[in-house]
Amino acid sequence: MKNEKLAQILEQAKLDIEASKTSEDIANCRNKYLAKKSELSAMSSLIGSLPPEERKDFGAEVFQTKSQISSLIEEKAKDLQAQELAAKLAKETIDISLPGRSLTPGGKNPFHVVKDEMIDIFLGMGFTVADGPEVETDKYNFELLNIPQDHPARDMQDTFYINDTELLRTHTSPVQAHTMEKAVGKPIRIICPGKTYRRDDDDATHSHQFAQIEGLVVDKGINIGHLKATLELFAKKMFGEKREIRLRSSYFPFTEPSVEVDINCANCGGKGCNMCKGTGYIEILGGGMVHPNVLTMNGYDAEEYSGFAFGIGIERVAILRYGIDDIRRFYQNDVRFLHQFRKKA
Ligand code: DAH
User: Fold this and answer.
1) Which of 48, 110, 156, 308 suits 73 as a labelling partner, its CA being 20 to 30 A distant?
2) Mean pLDDT of 199-222
3) Can you give the pLDDT at residue 55?
């Protein structure tokens, strides 16, 4: 290099670049040596004022110095950036050997445990699951089930009215009418689990909201033996092989004959205790042979077709199954209650 000043600048630049420890230091070097106000820029502007014979060499020298400094700076900047990134990553690493924060697992509400089990039992017998609305019309909730206006059976099922014709269904039985309507005269074998509502004063055994599983079978040649066998199998699967059922005659407007079904008390084996109120039996559901009026009103020839139906309270089954003392516990979501039903791992 012929020009001493340029050689000096280059030397100093090398020292400064070498001494840079951070990206900020190198940015300062860039500013000092390559910016518009740098000594090198000042020297570039001299080129034009030199005599032509010196101009070319001096110009080349300035250019060379500039590009040498520039590449030294960029190289160093890259190194520093990589170092800084590595340091940052090292500082931010996660210590995967730390124990995790423990989560408290919830428990499935026993209501759902029992509901799912009940559904499984009936699916195993060839039933399919049907659905229906919770906001019902008077027609489906009462009239198509042989409960006309002013029928005394309506007293037992007071409910929440939306308006004169719509109400919250008092039982899952209206799904019988919906299903018959859709099946247009064809055989039926369905269950329908769902929420039901009645105006009630809530206490340990009453709730204004509860749930039922409805069952309906319609076909040629169905008799009460089919109903009994179906419910017996259900009771044994649900409560144990040793349980016996008993059919008591009862009354529902939509079945004839109507029955109430009891299981023998597991607590006393039938001798009579507090749980069965001394009777040896506990009522679990209502059912019967579908009333010919219901078949006819819903599009079936009652001479040719017959059917059976039943309605089971889901909470009632869960209460009996687990010995739960208060129906309200199903809806309160108290974790102390739910934890008792947590599956052991
Ligand atoms: N719907 C009745 C109730 O809620 C229960 C019931 C009884 C359903 C007899 C039926 C039946 O399907 O056949 O009290």
Assistant:
1) 48
2) 96
3) 86
Helix-, strand-, coil-residue percentages of the chain, each rounded to 5:
45, 20, 35
> What's the gap in Å between 286 CA and the centre of ligand 1?
5
Nearest to 235 by CA among 245, 225, 248: 245
Rg (CA), the chain: 43
Residue nearest to atom 12 of ligand 1 (CA): 310
Q: Which residues fall within 8 angstroms of residue 282, CB to CB, at 6 or more apart? A: 262, 263, 264, 265, 275, 276, 320
**What are 237's two structure tokens?**
């699967």
Sequential DSSP letters for 130-186: ----SEEEHHHHTGGGT--TT-GGGGGG---BSSSSEEE-SSSTHHHHHHHHHHTTS
Q: Does the beta carbon of 159 lie inside 6 Å of ligand 1? A: no
Contact 168, 162 (CB under 8 A): yes
For the Cβ of 288 lying below 6 angstroms from any atom of ligand 1, the answer is yes
Q: How far apart are CA 300 and CA 28, in angstroms?
A: 95
* Nearest residue to 265 via CA among 286, 285, 242: 242
Closest CA to 192 of 207, 203, 176, 208: 176
Most confident of 56-65, 150-159, 195-204: 195-204
